[in-house]
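Long-time lurker, first post. I've been practising inverse folding by hand and with some scripts of my own, and I keep getting stuck on stretches where the C-alpha cells seem ambiguous. Below is the full C-alpha cell string for one chain I'm working on. Before anyone asks, I'm not after the true native sequence, just a reasonable design that respects the backbone. If someone could post their per-position residues I'd love to compare against what I wrote down in my notebook.
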C-alpha cells in the first residue's frame, strides 16, 4: 500500500521516508521504536549535560523568538515534580507556540542547554493526557529532519490500522504454536504495557525473522549429504607457484585454513564452509588460492563481493596472480558492458575455465554452467534475504565458501551460519599497532594539528561521520560529513581532502577513492561507505566523529581500515557530550582490539533489553538487532515440529520488509 494513504504525509515527507528505506505502509508498520522511555523513571531538571526524562507542569504561555528568516526558537516556563523551574526550548518549531497550555503535565525528554542557563533543549515530549491508562513504557522512534516524534507515531499508528501484518506461517499454525500472532506482536511493540509484554512481543517477531535462516541452514545441511563429482587437481603445484609470487609468506593460520579447504576439495562432498576472520586477517588471499586450484583444474569459479569498489579491488588482486599462472579472470558488475557480459556467459556455457570476480550481478541466472564449480562470497552478511535465496539456488551443485569479517557472538553465529563448517583465522598476519584515543572537544584542535604533521609525512587519514548533511540533533551541529569536509578543506587545503558518501554514483565514488589511494588527497571524509573491505595500506589515521552513533561492530570495522601495513596508527574517537552509557561502550572499544570480545560486549550490553535511550541512531541500531539464544532455541524446535511444512517466505511482504530492517 502506498504511503499517500496516510493522513499528514505529503509528497515531500513521503520522499523523505522513502529515502530512509520506508517505502510502503507495511514498512511504516514495521518501523520499530529505537528505545522506550520508562515513565516511572523520570528525573528532575539538572544542568549536567545529560539526556533525561522530566515530568513537569507548564507554567507560562510560550514565547517565540525569531533570529533569522530560517532560524528561531520557542520556549516557556515549566516546573518539575520537586519544584525546580526551568525553560523547555524548541528550535525551529514555531508551531510549538500553540501546542502547550498552562497547567498541562508533560514528559519532556532532552538535556539542558550548554550555553543558556536554565534552559532544557527538548528532543521529544509527550503530554500526560495522551498516555493511555496503565502505560509505563513509551516508545521512542528515530526521527528524521522534518518528521518529529509525534507525527511519526501518528503515521505508524495509522499504518497499523491499515495493513495486515501477515506471517508466512499459516494461521492455524500461528494459533496453535505461538503465544501471539505476528500482527498482535507488532502492535504491542509499538505500544507495550510493560517490559514483560514487550519481551513476549519481541520474541514473536524474532521467531518470524529467524525461521527462514533456520530453514536455510537445514537446506545447506541436506546439500552436504549429496555426492559431489568434482575432481580437483594441481593442489601442491598451484600453492607453490602462488607462494613464489606472493610478496609475503602465508601465516600458519592461513596455511591451516587453506589445508582445511583443500581437504574438503579432495573429499567428494559439496563444500559449505564459512571462513571467519577479523578485519585484516588475510581472507582474500586464502580464497584466491583455492579459486586458482579450481580454475586450474578446468572449472569455472566465482568470487562475489557486496560492493562494486570491493569487487574491483579483488579483481585487481586476482589479476596479479592469475595472469602469472596463465589463468583467466574477468570482472562482472552492474557496469559491465553488454558485450562483455555476453563474452562471460559464453565462456561459462562453453566450459572454458575462468574466474569471475564481481558483485551480486554474478548471481543472475544468465551466469550459470554445469562447469561452475566454486563460489566464494565475501562479506556474506551484507547480502539480503532475496540474494541469499538466489545464492542457495545457485550453489545447489557448487562448492560454497563464505567469508565474514563480522565477528558475531556464538549464539548469533548459530543462527546465521548453523549449517556451515567453520574455519577461523584468529591471528592477523602482523600485530597491529593502533592506539585508540577518546578526544574531548577541547582537544580537537590539537588532534587536527597532529594529523597535519602526520600527513606532511605521507600518512593518510580517514574521517568518518554519521550523517552526510542533515542534523536532527542540536548537539551535533558542525559534525556532518559535508560540514567536516568544508572545515578540513580550510585547514589542510582543498586539494588534500576528498569527500565520499552513499549518494555518489559508483563512478564518482571510484574517482574519490582513487584520488585517496593513488592521488594527491591525504584525507578522506566520508560516511560509513568505507566500512567494508577497503584496503589502503598507507592510511594510518582514523577519526570517528560522534562514535556513539555507531554500533561497536561498525567502530571495529572502521578501525580495521588503518595500519594495514603494520605501521603505527591512531584511531581518534571525537566524542562530545557522551552519556555515561555511551562512554562505557566507547571506553571498552578503546581498550579492546579483539573483534569477538567487542561483539560479545555489544551483545550483552545491548541485547539484555536496554530500555532507556542508548543514543543509538542508525536504522538497525534498535532493540531488534539482537536475538537471544532462548528465542533461537524456541524457533528451532518450532521448525522441527513444522519440518514437512514447506514455508515460502520469499513472497511474504512482511518478512521481506522485516529482513531488510535486519540486514541493512
Ligand atoms: P580481510 O581478511 O579483512 O579481507 P585482506 O584479505 O584484505 O583482509 O588482507 C589484509 C591485508 O593483509 C592485505 O593488504 C593483504 O595483502 C595483507 N596480507 C594478507 N596475508 C598476509 C600475510 N601472510 N603477510 C602479510 N600481509 C598479508
Ligand atoms: Mg576482506
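-- Answer (accepted) --
I ran through it position by position. Result:
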Amino acid at each position: 500500500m502506498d504511503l499517500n494513504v496516510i493522513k499528514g504525509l505529503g509528497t515531500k515527507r513521503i520522499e523523505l521516508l522513502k529515502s530512509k528505506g520506508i517505502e510502503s505502509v507495511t514498512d511504516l508498520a514495521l518501523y520499530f521504536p529505537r528505545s522506550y522511555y520508562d515513565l516511572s523513571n523520570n528525573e528532575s531538571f539538572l544542568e549536567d549535560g545529560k539526556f533525561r526524562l522530566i515530568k513537569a507542569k507548564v507554567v507560562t504561555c510560550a514565547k517565540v523568538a525569531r533570529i533569522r528568516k530560517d532560524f528561531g526558537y520557542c520556549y516557556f516556563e515549566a516546573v518539575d515534580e520537586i519544584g525546580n523551574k526551568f525553560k523547555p526550548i524548541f528550535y525551529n518549531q514555531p508551531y510549538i507556540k500553540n501546542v502547550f497550555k498552562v497547567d498541562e503535565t508533560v514528559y519532556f525528554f532532552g538535556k539542558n542547554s550548554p550555553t543558556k542557563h536554565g534552559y532544557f533543549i527538548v528532543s521529544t515530549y509527550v503530554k500526560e493526557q495522551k498516555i493511555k491508562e496503565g502505560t509505563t513504557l513509551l516508545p521512542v522512534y528515530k526521527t528524521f529532519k522534518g518528521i518529529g516524534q509525534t507525527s511519526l507515531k501518528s503515521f505508524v499508528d495509522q499504518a497499523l490500522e491499515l495493513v495486515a501484518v501477515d506471517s508466512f506461517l499459516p494461521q492455524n499454525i500461528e494459533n496453535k504454536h505461538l503465544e501471539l500472532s505476528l500482527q498482535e506482536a507488532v502492535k504491542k511493540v509499538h505500544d507495550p504495557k510493560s517490559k514483560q509484554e514487550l519481551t513476549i512481543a519481541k520474541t514473536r517477531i524474532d521467531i518470524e525473522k529467524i525461521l527462514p535462516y533456520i530453514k536455510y541452514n537445514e537446506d545447506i545441511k541436506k546439500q552436504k549429504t549429496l555426492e559431489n563429482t568434482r575432481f580437483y587437481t594441481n593442489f601442491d603445484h598451484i600453492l607453490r607457484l602462488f607462494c613464489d609470487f606472493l610478496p609475503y609468506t602465508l601465516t600458519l593460520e592461513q596455511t591451516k585454513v587453506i589445508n582445511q579447504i583443500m581437504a574438503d576439495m579432495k573429499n567428494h562432498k559439496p563444500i559449505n564452509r564459512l571462513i571467519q576472520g577479523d578485519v585484516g586477517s588475510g581472507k582474500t588471499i586464502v580464497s584466491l588460492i583455492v579459486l586458482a586450484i579450481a580454475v586450474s583444474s578446468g572449472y569455472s569459479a566465482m568470487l562475489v563481493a557486496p560492493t562494486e569498489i570491493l569487487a574491483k579491488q579483488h579483481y585487481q588482486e586476482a589479476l596479479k596472480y592469475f595472469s602469472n599462472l596463465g589463468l583467466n579472470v574477468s570482472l562482472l558488475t552492474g557496469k559491465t558492458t553488454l558485450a562483455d557480459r555476453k563474452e562471460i556467459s559464453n565462456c561459462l556455457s562453453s566450459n572454458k575455465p575462468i574466474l569471475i570476480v564481481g558483485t551480486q550481478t554474478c548471481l543472475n541466472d544468465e551466469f550459470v554452467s554445469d562447469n561452475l564449480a566454486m563460489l566464494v562470497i565475501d562479506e556474506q552478511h551484507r547480502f539480503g534475504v532475496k540474494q541469499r535465496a538466489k545464492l542457495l539456488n545457485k550453489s545447489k551443485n557448487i562448492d560454497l565458501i563464505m567469508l565474514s569479517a563480522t565477528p558475531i557472538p556464538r549464539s548469533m553465529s548459530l543462527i546465521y551460519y548453523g549449517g556451515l563448517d567453520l574455519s577461523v583465522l584468529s591471528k592477523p598476519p602482523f600485530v597491529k599497532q593502533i592506539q585508540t584515543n577518546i578526544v574531548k572537544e577541547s582537544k580537537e584542535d590539537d588532534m587536527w594539528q597532529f594529523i597535519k604533521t602526520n600527513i606532511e609525512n605521507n600518512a593518510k587519514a580517514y574521517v568518518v561521520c554519521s550523517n552526510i548533511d542533515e542534523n536532527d540533533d542540536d548537539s551535533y551541529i558542525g559534525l556532518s560529513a559535508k560540514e567536516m569536509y568544508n572545515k578540513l578543506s580550510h585547514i589542510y587545503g582543498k586539494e588534500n581532502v576528498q569527500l565520499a558518501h552513499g549518494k555518489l554514483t559508483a563512478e564518482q565514488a571510484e574517482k574519490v577513492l582513487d584520488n585517496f589511494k593513488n592521488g594527491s588527497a591525504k584525507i578522506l571524509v566520508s560516511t560509513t561507505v568505507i566500512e567494508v573491505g577497503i584496503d589502503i595500506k598507507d592510511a594510518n589515521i582514523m577519526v570517528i566523529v560522534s562514535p556513539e552513533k555507531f554500533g561497536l561492530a561498525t567502530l571495529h570495522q572502521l578501525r580495521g581500515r588503518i595500519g594495514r601495513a603494520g605501521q603505527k596508527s591512531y584511531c581518534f574517537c571525537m566524542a562530545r557530550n557522551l552519556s555515561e552509557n555511551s562512554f562505557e561502550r566507547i571506553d571498552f572499544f578503546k581498550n579492546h582490539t579483539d573483534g569477538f570480545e567487542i561483539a560479545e560486549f555489544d551483545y550483552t550490553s545491548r541485547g539484555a533489553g536496554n530500555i532507556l535511550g542508548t543514543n543509538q541512531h542508525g536504522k538497525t541500531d534498535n532493540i531488534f538487532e539482537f536475538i537471544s539464544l532462548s528465542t533461537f532455541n524456541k524457533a528451532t524446535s518450532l521448525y522441527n515440529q513444522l519440518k514437512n511444512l514447506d514455508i515460502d517466505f520469499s513472497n511474504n511482504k512482511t518478512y521481506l520488509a522485516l529482513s531488510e530492517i535486519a540486514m541493512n
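A couple of notes from the structure itself: The chain is about 40% helix and 20% strand. Residues 248, 250-251, 254, 277, 279-285, 405, 429, 533, 535, 564 surround adenosine-5'-diphosphate (ligand 1) (CB under 6 Å). Happy to go over any region you disagree with.
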